[in-house]
Specification:
Layout: H1 2-43, H2 75-111, H3 113-127, H4 131-142, H5 146-173, H6 176-183, H7 188-224, H8 236-242, H9 244-248, H10 253-280, H11 289-293
Helix pairs in contact: 1-2, 1-10, 2-3, 2-5, 2-7, 3-5, 4-5, 4-7, 5-7, 7-8, 7-10, 8-10
GO cellular component, one term: plasma membrane
Family: Belongs to the binding-protein-dependent transport system permease family.
Keywords: Cell membrane, Membrane, Transmembrane, Transmembrane helix, Transport
């Protein structure tokens, strides 16, 4: 038992060292952000939607360390409550696009031939649509909201994941152990689920971590232009937009606080994604959807 504990501790230490100081700090920031997203509404000291216009753009006060926004609402409470939608949306995008992208990549690698060519042609069509433009069209057609925008981004991000994972899956597909398993009569679906998917998992995790940052920026932009989360619900993208009037009047706290939260979390995900990509020996993360479209 003691040996197992020591082995587990040693393995954890090696993984931590391989991430480096930057990677560990990024992981800590992400963990804190996740906890705030889960418990933020419970930790909020005040009702995030309670408005008192007499306190509009009032600075820090007792019980209100960040002051108030233009509607007289407590800024700290809105930041804590807004963390849930700001992180839940990107999480949904990553989960859906990673599931679809990995499934397509594994199918292309396993069957090859016509299946591979047909899937590649379909993915090339999706590459032509910028992610944020597709999200704007979806929210225009189906109405503003987080669901339509998240589904549109999930579709737009799928080919970027499939392209990277397919290369790794093809390499695994023609390894000798796969041939040996086929000779033993193991079904293809079992080989894929038990062996191919676990062996490409490090690349999948690295790509998903980086993709989270892209999705968070895109969803914040959608909310900023009024097509994502709708006021008065708290969301960091919404807060950046609503704080614009305060910036012009010399009260930038709302926009700066929400924008700073977005920047910190996105940078943490990107840095951790780079460290994980280096550990897994995968190709560099795919360019942001907007960059690839350009």
């Amino acid at each position: 038992m003691l040996r197992r504990r020591r082995a587990g501790t040693t393995t954890l230490g090696r993984r931590t060292r391989s991430l480096g100081v930057v990677g560990v700090c990024s992981a800590v920031v992400i963990a804190v952000a996740a906890l705030i997203a889960v418990f933020g509404p419970l930790l909020a000291p005040h009702d995030p939607n309670a408005s008192q216009l007499s306190n509009a753009f009032f600075g820090p006060a007792a019980g209100h360390p960040l002051g108030f926004d233009g509607q007289g609402r407590d800024l700290l409470s809105r930041l804590l409550a807004g963390a849930r939608t700001s992180l839940l949306g990107p999480l949904f995008v990553v989960a859906v696009s990673m599931t679809a992208g990995v499934s397509i990549a594994i199918a292309c690698a396993w069957f090859g031939g016509r299946v591979d060519r047909a899937a590649s042609a379909a993915l090339n069509v999706l590459f032509a649509f910028p992610a944020i433009l597709l999200a704007v069209v979806a929210t225009t057609v189906f109405g503003p909201g987080l669901v339509a925008a998240s589904l549109a981004l999930s579709i737009a991000y799928t080919p970027y994941i499939a392209r990277v994972v397919r290369s790794a899956a093809v390499r695994e597909r023609y390894q000798q152990y796969v041939e040996a398993l086929e000779v033993q009569g193991l079904p293809g679906r079992v080989i894929c689920l038990r062996h191919l998917v676990p062996n490409v998992a490090p690349i999948v995790v690295a790509q998903g971590t980086t993709l989270f940052g892209y999705a968070m920026v895109d969803l914040a932009a959608i909310s900023y232009i009024g097509l994502g989360v709708q006021p008065p619900d708290a969301d960091w993208g919404v807060m950046v937009a609503q704080g614009q009037s305060g910036v012009l009047q010399g009260y930038p706290a709302e926009s700066l606080a929400a924008g700073g939260c977005i920047v910190v979390v996105v940078v943490a995900f990107n840095l951790l994604g780079e460290r994980l990509s280096a550990r897994s020996g995968s190709a560099p993360s795919p360019a942001a959807p907007e960059e690839a479209a350009a």
